[in-house]
């Protein structure tokens, strides 16, 4: 799995998550990002074309060297400074209250301890900062959930540990956030067990 995860999987993620089907969701979730931004699971930079000009800089957390290499052309096309700043979203190398916004897109499904990563995001967000997220996870319909539970062992094996049954809104709330905006929907033209999305904006709880 080492060779597959390091040399093959980033290409698959770049192709699947770079599909035009994700464009509208990426544009929506990036709306409102501002100031100094933390992006967990930067991947191959698929969000770069959707960064608003209110962003001052981006600190990117990305474990895959190949993913960073695949981002080169997108990095060359943006005027926003982007720096690869860490490898592990579960342990961030930043002081408390550092960032104005944070962004996760199709990331929390794969991080081994998504709750720990979200608690770290909360720690490094400044007061009044916002977490913007679009993630696939547990579907709202029971019949789809049954298929997700059946398919999850296969999904985890072929997609680098990707889970289908994580309850994204609950994970965000349990990490100490209040959700200000939330839209749950199925991604068009994607099988429902794989395309149940939660898109929202959250702020650290008082």
Structure description:
34% of the residues lie in helices and 27% in strands. It has 7 helices and 7 strands. The radius of gyration is 16 Å and the shape is globular. The relative contact order is 0.15.
Q: What layout of secondary structure does this protein have?
A:
Layout: H1 2-17, H2 23-30, E1 35-40, E2 55-61, H3 65-70, H4 72-76, E3 82-86, E4 99-105, H5 114-124, E5 125-136, H6 142-158, H7 168-174, E6 177-186, E7 196-204
Parallel strand pairs: 1-2, 1-4, 2-3, 4-5
Antiparallel strand pairs: 5-7, 6-7
The biggest beta sheet reads: 7 strands, mixed
Tally of DSSP helical segments = 7
Low-confidence stretches: none
Oligomer: single chain
Topology pattern, helix = H, strand = E: HHEEHHEEHEHHEE
Helix proportion range: 25-40%
- Terminal Cα separation, in Å? 42 Å
Q: How much beta, percentage-wise?
A: 25-35%
Mean pLDDT: 92
Q: Which term fits the overall shape?
A: globular
Order of adjacent strands in the largest pleated sheet? 3-2-1-4-5-7-6
* SS-based class: alpha/beta
Number of strands: 7
State Rg.
Answer: 16 Å
Short description:
This protein has 206 residues and is α/β, with parallel strands linked by helices.
Relevant terms:
7 helices; 7 strands; 27% strand; single chain; 34% helix; seven-stranded mixed beta sheet; 206 residues; alpha/beta
